[in-house]
Amino acid sequence: MTVEKSVNILVVDDEEIVRDSLGSWLEEDGYNVEAVESGKKALERLPAKVWDLMLVDLKMPGMDGIQLMEEVRKTHPEMLVIIMTAYATVDTAVKAMKKGAYDYFVKPFNPDDISLTIRKIVDHHKLVRENLFLRKELKKQYKLRDMISKNEKMLEIFDLARTVAKSSSTVLIQGESGTGKELLARAIHDESPRSEAPFISVSCAALTESLLENELFGHEKGAFTGANAIKRGKLELAQDGTLFLDEIGDISLKLQMDLLSVLEQRLFRRVGGSDLIAISSRILAATNRDLKRAIEEGRFRADLYYRLNVISIQIPPLRERREDIPLLVEHFIEKFNIEMGKQIRGVGEGAMRILMDNDWPGNARELRNVIERAVVVAKGNVITESDISLPSIVGRADHRAKSLEEVEKEHIRVVLIENQWNIVRSAQTLGIDRVTLYNKIKKFDLKKEGTGAKEC
After folding, report:
1. Same domain, yes or no, for 54 and 162?
2. What sign has the CA pseudo-torsion 125, 127, 130, 132?
3. Are 67 and 8 found together in one domain?
4. Which residue(s) pair with 35 in the sheet?
5. Which tens digits make up the pLDDT trace of 53-90?
6. What is the DSSP letter of 189?
7. Cα–Cα distance for residue pair 155/144, rounded to 1 Å
8. 411 with 386, same domain?
9. Which of 185, 208, 294, 406 fits 299 for a cystine, CB–CB 3.0-4.6 Å?
10. Looking at the structure, do residues 228 and 259 belong to the same domain, yes or no?
């Protein structure tokens, strides 16, 4: 018999002869065994070591075997428990198994049967642990800090990010909203020698020109009405660290020129100031805009684009890497289980089919929100179809009967109407370029209704 010194077994039985004989048999098979006479004693010994298996008598004075098993599972939900009973009725066995027992033994025992059964249980449990370990190791290969993917393009991006993290070069991250541009920027910072210095993020789309200028450069005391003290801007606060400029495609032409000067000279002045301040921070930028098209339309400076685009990373949308959906779903469920104290084990086949078939216009961020809601509303420990609510098609009772093409056509039609058939604005809302939108309009034979709409 192979020695299993790493396997710890706790025997709980009020009969001394059972404890002695069972303990001796198991020790002969090479297991570490401890035997106690009551459920109370078992609970006291539970924290003493990592127990792999408990053999528990069903009928004991005070706390019986099923009560003990229920108490154990409150703190050790994965514990393997085998019930021992001299009352070999079907009802007894079914009750024990329903309450979570792994198996049951009938007294009087046959030592050979005990040895064979426990050997099978130990081998199976070892295999489960090894599989869990391999899954965790495999998941590590798919991770870059808080990002997770097994898509080939994404794994190439992870490798590139680890490489560029070692340098101080400017990086331009492009991709649709919700693809994880800021997560990637944070990962580059965390993987870099600057990881102990600040990571400062600025959303350029959320601020007016004057507020963004003040946010970036800071101001001197008295620079304008209400400037009662010196304010350090994000450029200063990010010294020796990383400054992340999110939605860089939304800044004004004036601020584009100011930022270009900073990137070229590594110097700037606070608003209302005359002293030059040197910066040592690294600049990372991101946008969901098509900057080359913005340059053609005169909305973005070509020289700033080339200065930012030293290293370019394009994150693909989730609909182009559907193999990531189950991986992300598992990742989000684990996250929300911890945050909410839930025990959701996974997603049912029907629910996963809905998730896989959706185009996810909001990308991973939208998927995250859908899973968060599903974890909240789920009544069981598996997410079902009724727990899934897709924001893009909420309120349509027949949405699951429609094809993806029908949903896409209707969505594009609604966006065009909302933007009065302005092609530029509609394309930006949809996150696609104008050529793609024109092709979709032609494909779906969409036509303007009414008059007076201006097409650009």
Report:
1. no
2. negative
3. yes
4. 11
5. 999 998 899 999 989 998 888 888 778 899 888 765 55
6. H
7. 9
8. no
9. 294
10. yes
